[in-house]
Amino acid sequence: MAKVADLYYQLDPWKIVEKGFDKSRNEVSEAIFALGNEYMGIRGYFEEGFSGNSLLGSYFNGIYENSPEENRVQYKGIVKRSHFMVNAVDWLKTEIIIDGQRLDLNHDNISEYYRELDLRSGLLTRSFQINTKTNKEVFFKFERFLDMEQAQWGYQKISAYTKSGTVDLELILGADFNSEHVSQGQNFWQEVKKDTVGETTGIIGETLTTKQKIFSGFCLKNNQSLSSEVVTRDKFIGRKFNVKLDSDNYFEVEKYVTNIVSKTPVATEKLWQEGIHDSQIQQQFSYEQIKSNQKIYWEKIWEKYDITINGDELNQQGIRFCIFQLQQTYHGQNPTNNIGAKGLTGESYGGLAFWDTETCCLPFYLLNNLAAAKNLLEFRYETLSEARLRARELDCEGACYPIATLNGHEASDLWQHASLQFQPSTGVAYGIFHYMNLSQDIEFLYGHGIEMLIEICRFLASRGDFSPTGEFGFFGVMGPDEFQMMVNHNGYTNYMAKKTFEYTLQTLKEIIRTNPARIGELTSELLLTQEEQILWKKCADKTLMLVREDGVIEQHDGFFKLPHLDIQKIPITDFPLYHHWSYDRIYRNDMIKQPDVLMFQFLYNQDFSFESKKVNYEFYEPKTIHESSLSPSIHSILAAELGKNNDAYDFFGFATRMDLDNYNRNTREGLHTTSIAAAWMNIVYGFGGVRTDGPILLLNPTIPAVWQDYEFKITYKNALIAVKVTQEKVSLTKVTGPDVKIKLYDNTVTLDDKVYEVERVS
Questions:
Q1: CA 454 to chain centre
Q2: Exposure of 436 in the CB half-sphere (CA atoms within 13 A)
Q3: Closest listed residue to residue 359, CA positions, set 258, 293, 432
Q4: CA angle, 130 as apex, 127 and 131 as ends, to 5°?
Q5: Burial (CB count within 10 angstroms: exposed 0-12, middle 13-18, buried 19+), residue 281
Q6: Whole-angstrom Cα distance, residue 670 to residue 629?
Q7: From CA 57, how far away is CA 525, in angstroms rounded?
Q8: Which is it for strands 229-233 and 213-222: parallel, antiparallel or unpaired?
């Protein structure tokens, strides 16, 4: 690969540490030090403000706005107006003035700068000493964290002391709806109410067009019992302290914040009363008590989710960072939430959910938090009507799930993606299949699941077609490899559609056998017919897969005839390519952004022989530039299975530290959620050799030569299983739950209360 790591943060197995402040890296650090709890997310920006390059980002899951301008291209099927996750209230808003000098690390003379994200507690701290223009030395410490269970609650703490005479300190802490949405260059909020009730100071903002509302209220507690005065400006309310700071005292203020979100229309007064009430409840708990509770919360998460690696400090830190961010981004709190491509850490991709939610993010939840996995699929059911509408916009039947969305409607106004890529629809079908493999949740499958499957099949059958020679496939499409546009018989699209047809028909056959009344309901409610089922079977049976004599599956019709480009000769300064190459230049060769063939060979792994996976890996890997964050992990997983140990290890490090080491030089835009999820798969599905696409869980563990051992835990059929792999042995332990059968190195074993240990197979 032509990409290299940009090592900056200190190496620590449980912390992300920045020593010394490099302002040129500020936006990258804002993404790295982001906090979230699925409900809301806050970038690691400086609460006191920063006049240099910064993306002050505060986001709430499901709070969005519509693009100010319509798409100038007005052809049918092309999205007229996009939507995006909107930058919301700055509930950390702080202004600090020291002897008349406004604190601003872009210009101030500071020393002893230190910032730390503790992955074991979710606490972000920052400290430094400022040497003022009045020759005073003042030391500041900032803390912030989010409540992972009472997700509407956030906390902030600021401490200050000096050892050099008396300092006049002015602090204003508040809530500010003046946040600019940087990618759109404007503010999308209007103030509808602000006031103070008892100890709570609050404000309600409303989005300009979607009319969603947020109540942001706060209470301040300080160690000197100082009173504060209310400060108001347009879209802002705060409280000001005037402090005399000297060597005999220090000042400390704690901020308790309640953010209540209304995704659907609600009366302002009703929301106000709810916010005030919730804030009053929050005030009953001490800052230290809640902070302690969060540490206990994270301890329980790590007991179940932790992955340990002996002998590789870089990837130990990397994989824990990934697990931490996955739990922050989503843990199944609400079925109306989904996972954005950047989580809640930035504005890139509009905070929208993509097709890789079901293919790359879902496995983490399937083997750790099955209820959360189901909620991800329920989001797709809740937006089924919007998917039906999208299919009609494309002159098709059934339901077409959008390539990018927050509310179920297609948000991508790039026609080549929104109108040519059908990975979301087949991804939802795959997610249902994958969830059922691990849950056996028949009630879901026969209910919401089969409804989605039927509508997806209707779409695929109407969007695909038969060639004059009788083969079924898709024409004028784009697969996951977005460097090949408007192609015919894309291998990924064809194969995933074939599997969708087959699984849907199999499910319908089971429903007829076990619950014939449900077939009657589907016939009545969805107008399911025998004729369309016959068509789906014909589509599946006649699906064309282009395969060379040596077993290489052609990515799409004509791919083998494309000019070759040596990707190793692309300068590092050309990345990301979309920013440095003309758009059409990317499409004129056999360079691959991310794998198509290897991707479906991973998803339906047990459908393909070792030889098929090997020949396709060796053909496509040298052509892949990994401009997509999910690409390295898919390569690593297959490389581990194929015994290509060096490749597996190199790609693995690329994935775990994609953002920490800014491999793609775009971490400042937000974290790569898919890469973070896929890094977890690297351990479990890659080196652990786990496969979940068949009737029984498979384990074929390998281990990189540089590791002494590694250990992970997964939950399978309600049993928590610990897997430990050394250079010599594999040990399996059922930690909790019922006895369970799995297959280890092709041998079926029953895990009970004993430790099961075998020699590792090389």
A1: 28
A2: 20
A3: 432
A4: 155
A5: exposed
A6: 12
A7: 44
A8: unpaired
Question: Which residue in the block uniquely carries the two structure tokens 């994200």?
Answer: 117
Q: Which long-range contacts (CB under 8 A, 24 or more apart) does 648-653 make?
A: 648/686, 648/687, 648/702, 648/704, 649/704, 649/705, 649/706, 650/1, 651/682, 652/315, 652/679, 652/682, 652/683, 652/686, 652/687, 652/704, 653/314, 653/315, 653/318
Whole-angstrom Cα distance, residue 470 to residue 120? 59
Euclidean distance between the first and the last CA atom of the chain, given in angstroms as a whole number: 27
| Pairwise CA distance, residues 441 & 446, whole Å | 9
Q: What is the pLDDT confidence band of residue 4, given thresholds at 50, 70 and 90?
A: confident
pLDDT band for 454, please (50, 70, 90 cuts).
very high
* Rounded-to-integer distance, Cα 657 and Cα 480, Å: 22
Q: Is 599 helix (H, G, I), strand (E, B) or coil?
A: helix
Structure tokens of 706?
């540089």
| Cβ 335 vs Cβ 350: under 8 Å | no
Give the whole-angstrom CA distance, residue 312 versus residue 285: 41
- Give kind and range of the element (H or E) at residue 495: helix 491-514
DSSP H stretches of helix in 440-477: 442-444, 450-463
Residue at 758: amino acid letter: V
Per-residue model confidence as pLDDT tens digits over 138-183: 999 999 999 999 999 999 999 999 988 899 999 999 999 999 999 8
CB-CB contact of 442 with 370 (8 Å): no
- Alpha-carbon distance of 23 to 45, in angstroms, equals 12
Measured CA to CA, the distance from residue 619 to residue 277 in angstroms comes to 62
How many CB atoms lie under 10 A from the CB of residue 215? 28
Give the amino acid at 508.
L
pLDDT at 738 over 80: yes
Burial (0-12, 13-18, 19+ Cβ within 10 Å), 188? buried
SS (H, E, C) 146-192: ECCCCCCEEEEEEEEEECCCCEEEEEEEEEECCCCECCCCECCEEEE
Q: Cα dihedral sign for 486, 491, 496, 501?
A: positive
DSSP 517-542: HHHHHHHHHS---HHHHHHHHHHHHT
Q: How many CB atoms lie within 10 A of CB 87?
A: 27
Looking at residue 445, the DSSP 8-state letter turns out to be I
Maximum Cα interatomic distance, the chain, rounded to a whole number of Å? 90
Tell me the whole-structure pTM to 2 decimals: 0.96
- Enter the DSSP assignment of 761: P
Pairwise CA distance, residues 20 & 636, whole Å: 34
Which residue blocks in 237-355 are alpha helix, DSSP H? Answer: 268-282, 287-305, 313-329
What would the two tokens of residue 428 be?
A: 């939802």
> How far apart are the C-alpha atoms of 55 and 388, rounded to whole Å?
36
Of the candidates 119, 507, 511, the residue with the CA atom closest to the CA atom of residue 295: 119
Omega into 695 within 30° of 0, i.e. cis? no
